[in-house]
Design brief:
By secondary structure, this protein is an alpha/beta fold. The protein contains 10 helices and 8 strands.
């Protein structure tokens, strides 16, 4: 529902923020909103683009705090803390992606997503990825990019998934540090709130663990998958069940 609108309490729940957090963002003109009389209105299309850019730019305590809030918020719809054993599988990983340009990366990643069997329309997904990258690169410092559709609409996917591609050579992808990129995740979640949580989970794994180095050293898709599960378990702590699939 790309033209949906939210009220203040609805947008707070959607973004995994408190009402006070949203009011602070509005006061500082840091979030797209409209005023209809005395009522604040938030357009879904504008919010989706803004929210993903905001999460990708978070660091340190701000990122940790947001990840904690989103983790609490999604427990009502997702009972397990760990995401990766279900959403990422060894067959969803290509350790030798042949792409050499930004455009070919998007094509190869859309094809890899199509091979999961969870995409209803790979061509539509590719167009959404292109549109999202035209808004702002999803490249992050450290040589990693978190690709995702401009609008994570439920009709596009049968089930949530993550695919991971490691390119044979590094590619200029518009990362804020100016460095080239060789690790590409594609995130696809039919549930809007889970989409933002997955973005936060992968961001904090990249910031708080050695996963990027481990993925570059891994010899195959199975090794890359095992490294991802261990890194998620490290972020979640000793009580996580994230390691069950590799023990």
């Amino acid at each position: 529902m790309p033209y949906r609108t939210y009220g203040l309490d609805e947008i707070a729940r959607y973004l995994h923020l408190s009402r006070g957090d949203v009011e602070h963002l509005v006061k500082n003109q840091e979030i797209p909103f409209e005023k209809h009389g005395n009522r604040l209105v938030f357009q879904k299309v504008a919010i989706d683009s803004w929210a993903s850019r905001r999460i990708l730019g978070l660091e340190g305590k701000q990122l940790a705090d947001y990840h904690q809030k989103s983790s609490r918020a999604v427990r009502e719809v997702f009972k397990d803390q760990a995401l990766l054993p279900d959403q990422l599988q060894p067959g969803f990983i290509d350790p030798a992606l042949p792409a050499k340009t930004k455009g070919s990366v998007l094509r190869e990643m859309a094809l890899l997503a199509g091979r999961t069997g969870r995409v209803n329309d790979p061509e539509a997904l590719l167009e959404e990825l292109r549109f999202r990258e035209n808004l702002c690169s999803t490249g992050l410092p450290g040589g990693v990019a978190l690709l995702h559709p401009r609008r994570p609409e439920s009709y596009m996917f049968d089930a949530p998934f993550i695919v991971l591609g490691r390119t044979v050579q590094q590619i200029p992808f518009g990362a804020p540090d100016g460095e080239a990129t060789d690790l590409f995740f594609l995130i696809a979640c039919p549930d809007d709130r889970m989409h933002l949580h997955v973005l936060a989970r992968l961001c904090i794994m990249a910031h708080k663990t050695e996963i990027l180095a481990e993925l570059r050293l891994a010899s195959c898709a199975d090794a890359m998958f095992d490294a991802m599960v261990r890194a998620e378990r490290e972020v979640l702590g000793p009580e996580s069940d994230a390691g069950r699939s590799i023990e």
